[in-house]
Amino acid sequence: MRNRLFLWVPLALFAFFAGLAGYMLTQEKSQFVESTMIGEPLPDFALKPAFEGLPGAAKADFVGTKPRLLNIWASWCLPCIAEAPQLEALQAQGVEIIGIAIRDRPADVANFLTRYGNPYSRVGADDISEVQLAIGSSGVPETFVIDAAGVIRYQHIGDIREDDVALLLAELEKAR
Prior knowledge:
By secondary structure, this protein is α/β, with parallel strands linked by helices. The chain has helices spanning 2-25, 78-92, 106-116, 130-134, 165-174; strands at residues 46-47, 57-58, 68-73, 97-102, 120-126, 142-146, 152-157.
């Protein structure tokens, strides 16, 4: 009798784990990791310039009279190329965009901005993704709306598409 019980235990464990896996596969999942920093102030940071030609970025750059966009990007990021025209469209509408280049080389940053346009007022170099992780960003590109008090108000995950421009403008207006 005892030997028969040991024969059923592995089958029962297999059935349990198969059922659990089946259940988990049917649950709705988000493809994105949202920041837990929404509604929180930016952490303190001061980044050196990502290349010669623009100043670096710091928390102090986000405190002032108007909300700004913080764009996390990299020259090696293909979706960053796709969003470049939309960032320029936002800049053309008077939006100040501060960039943080992730794990990048100065020459590559400069070449990217020369080739695809430069919508940034500042670009800081986050060589070890320290600021990126501190604000809850999990990849590139990501864009955050930061209000005039330096508080993170909105997170846009992924590249900005043409139809996202109006949404970001609305979020900037809400952050006033």
